[in-house]
Specification:
- Keywords: Selenium.
- Belongs to the selenium-binding protein family.
- This is Selenium-binding protein 1.
- GO terms for molecular function: selenium binding.
- By secondary structure, this protein is mainly beta.
- It is built from 4 helices and 34 strands.
- Strands 29, 30, 31, 32 and 33 form a 5-stranded antiparallel sheet that branches. Strands 3-2-1-34 form a 4-stranded antiparallel sheet, with no helix packed on it.
Length: 489
């Protein structure tokens, strides 16, 4: 008789070799003009089973209860970090409202029809609601991760006045009530994404900036100001909940966003994508058990005419690592390309795949390249099933076996309005890329397209992507229980 286990997979390689092929995707969809069109954001269920009659279609929409949430990132009540606990079940999605600070908790016992079970509400828009989030002095909820002990952590980015503040909200997995904040003592200056690694007793978080600034839109004059935009990684003791080290990445590391440890539960390194200058840093543990970082990939700026600034960066806004820790993927939202790097040697990544999916640098666009250090030039527009891909590649999700990469195009609606206003009108898209997992290489699937410009309530912007059974960016794996912690040897 098989032994009952908790959610997910025992190891990353179990997921890679024997994980179920994804059949549906969960994608958050944002109404880009909530003041003009009073329809809420929703969670879309998308059929990605090639044998299904509704393949490449939205088959369900779970609408939120209120308008103007700006759904952004979301996660689970439990994941593979709870694999050894048979009492745990992955049956709830936790979705924070990036603007509203409401937290929606959806039950997914019926995978194809999630149902809102509870709302942790904030009263900035509705004065009669008790401020269940803001009373803890934090706002702008971002990344959701489950933890092995039955708690749900959500990173925050600001205080109640919109200044930067890196903290984590703790929700009890069973009661679904807020327990408080996570950090003991000094907080990080800014917040954004995070990843924990109990084997070395650390959690590391990244930084975007002060919500009062970036929520108003993109302002070039603010980008290199350290009081507005972050440039550090923050290292916490996982067991003590204390900030123990801050790694300053310098100007080249401005706006470190998505952060990923390697999936190997004993790995003592990972990568972070820095949006401002499109640099990728590797962070790693040193022999004295402190942590450091080094720049390992740089996407050069291009000098241009016809843009808001004389140079245009790639603006790297998402990265992920394949489950076997062989490949690193990241996007350049403005340059318009997706890249695949072999990270077999993590300190010297090797480019093995690149694909352009739109962006600002198009042959029929208004921008002219004056200096092009990587000699890529202007690109042809891309069409899938007769639909032109507008905007640039943004959020990504990779299949467990590494063979399929799904990509959406929306970043954050105030910035979408500025950089890609055409997507506000026409809606964003979601496409699929077929991946060569042997030697590298990316091929666009011309038979798969989700067009969010054809939604029943008008155009929507699609952002983060998840699978019901876990994926490359939501699940964290633990080392064997009897494994010694190297940081304590």
């Amino acid at each position: 008789m098989a032994t009952k286990t908790g959610p997910g997979y025992k190891t990353p390689m179990d997921a890679y070799h024997s994980g179920n092929r994804e059949k549906i995707l969960y994608v958050v969809c944002i109404n880009p003009e909530p003041k003009k069109r009073l329809t809420p954001d929703y969670l879309a269920v998308i059929d990605v089973d090639p044998s299904s009659p509704t393949y490449s279609q939205v088959i369900n929409r779970t609408y939120m209860k209120y308008v103007g949430d700006e759904l952004h990132h979301f996660g689970w009540n439990s994941c593979s970090s709870c694999y050894s606990d048979p009492s745990k079940k992955r049956n709830r999605i936790i979705i924070p409202g990036f603007v509203s600070d409401r937290i929606y908790i959806l039950n997914v016992d019926n995978l194809q029809a999630p149902v809102i079970e509870k709302i942790v509400r904030n009263c900035r828009s509705f004065a009669n609601f008790y401020e269940e989030v803001r009373k803890h002095g934090i706002t702008t909820m971002h990344t959701t991760h489950c933890s092995p002990n039955g708690e749900i952590l959500i990173s925050s980015m600001g205080d109640n006045d919109g200044n930067g503040k890196g903290e984590f909200l703790v929700i009890d997995e069973h009661s679904l009530k807020i327990k408080g904040t996570w950090t003991n003592g000094q907080r990080a200056k800014f917040g954004y994404d995070f990843w924990y690694q109990p084997h070395y007793d650390v959690m590391i978080s990244s930084e975007w900036g002060a919500p009062r600034s970036f929520k108003c839109g993109f302002c070039p004059e603010h980008l290199d100001k350290p009081e507005i935009y972050g440039r550090c990684l923050n290292v916490f003791s996982w067991s003590k909940h204390k900030l123990i080290q801050t790694i300053d990445l310098g100007l080249e590391g401005s706006t470190p966003l998505e952060i990923r440890f390697l999936h190997d539960p004993k790995a003592d390194q990972g990568f972070v994508g820095c949006g401002r200058y499109s640099n990728i840093f590797r962070f790693f543990r040193k022999p004295d058990n402190s942590w450091d970082a080094e720049k390992v990939i740089s996407v050069p700026l291009k000098k241009v005419e016809g843009f808001d600034t004389p140079e245009i960066s790639g603006m790297t806004t998402d990265i992920l690592i394949s489950m076997d820790d062989k490949y690193l993927y990241f996007n350049n939202w403005l340059h318009g390309d997706v890249r695949q790097y072999d990270i077999t040697n993590p300190s010297k990544p090797k480019l093995v795949g690149q694909l352009f999916l739109g962006g600002k640098l198009l042959k029929d666009g208004p921008i002219k390249i004056i200096e092009d250090p990587d000699n890529k030039g202007l690109q042809d527009p891309v069409f899938v099933k007769g639909r032109r891909l507008l905007g640039g590649p943004q959020m990504m999700q990779l299949s467990l076996d590494g063979k399929r990469l799904y990509i959406s195009t929306a970043l954050f609606s105030p910035w979408d309005h500025q950089f890609y206003p055409e997507t506000v009108t026409a809606g964003s898209t979601l496409v699929k890329i077929d991946v060569n997992t042997e030697t590298g290489g990316l091929t666009l699937d011309l038979n798969f397209l989700i067009d969010f410009g054809k939604e029943p309530d008008g155009s929507y912007l699609a952002h983060e992507i998840r699978y019901p059974g876990g994926d490359c960016t939501s699940d964290i794996y633990l080392a064997e229980p009897n494994s010694s912690c190297c940081s304590r040897k």
